[in-house]
Design a protein that fits this description.
Layout lengths: L4 H12 L10 H8 L6 E4 L6 H8 L3 E6 L2 H12 L8 E5 L5 H7 L5 E7 L4 H5 L25 H7 L2 H12 L4 H14 L5 H11 L10 H12 L1 H11 L4 E11 L2 H15 L2 E2 L8 E2 L5 E3 L5 E2 L2 H6 L7 E7 L19
Parallel strand pairs: 1-2, 1-4, 2-3, 4-5
Antiparallel strand pairs: 5-10, 6-7, 8-10, 9-10
Amino acid sequence: MIATMEDFTKEEQRETGGDAYHAPVLPTEVLEALNPAPGKCFVDCTLGGGGHTGLLLEAGARVLGIDQDPEAIAHVTQRFARHGRFAGRFESFHSSFGAVPELLSKLKLTAVDGFLLDLGVSSHQLDTPERGFSFQRQGPLDMRMNPDSPVTAAHLVNTASAEQLERMFREYGEEPHARRIALKVTKERMVHPFQSTLELAAAVEAVSPRRGRTHPATRVFQALRIAVNRELEVLERTLEVLGSFLVPGGRLAVITFHSLEDRIAKQVFQRLSTPTLDRPEWPAPKPNPECIYTRITGKPRVASEQEQQRNPRSRSAKLRVVERLGLLRPLVARFRTHAPPQG
């Protein structure tokens, strides 16, 4: 067995020739949160390049890996086939994390020790022009996590009304120039429908000039990706039901990369971990019937300066963790906060 996370990463680099499909963010913090060990079972709801799953397997746990991107499934399956010590402890499934409850029911798996969701786009997806996620590379306006999904970014850009695009850019991208960009897009597509990433990026930049290091199309591309994959809707619904499949003391860990995702995780976790409810018209507080968790993180955990230098993608990552109430296992002492939950 590999002694440390660093040893495992070095072994992976040797075996793959240094090819980094996707470097896992907050790996140490995730291991501390989930506390994997032989005999435990975890579900990695966003398998990606398998970085987090590899660390859980290395600790002796069993892992079910789920991803809606068939390229990720194929990559990780081939990658882990080299590790004989993982035999019988890893299964992969091509599915959205929104379908996890149905998948576990189909597998007759009634309880697991932990769930992990690492949200956002993988480095491999961004670096593959054909997937259309990046405004810095020429490629089709696609942005589908699951290539079998019917709606592409090009379809939305070329068919949604100006009002719909404005709302999309404002709500999902928090874009201050949403109306100006929406009008530009609807005007240009009348002459020539948008087909490529660089065409859309150029249109956005024409009405929203670059300021600082952030490209003007950043928020627009985020908004389209969220809309194409229905990310926020699926995330909220999934976070509300995963607790039903956790053993007492089991943990749910979520890594977010922008404020919209983090707000949903924070609000759902607050609602499901508040023991009592109170209103001015009530004579006394009442138990919260939805309370099934205790929060392990008050403020979210963020990447260290060393990790941010090693992996720039980790700069915006935030980790929130809750634990299923019941017959609680000993908590990881350094991970519990004794301050009132906040942030």
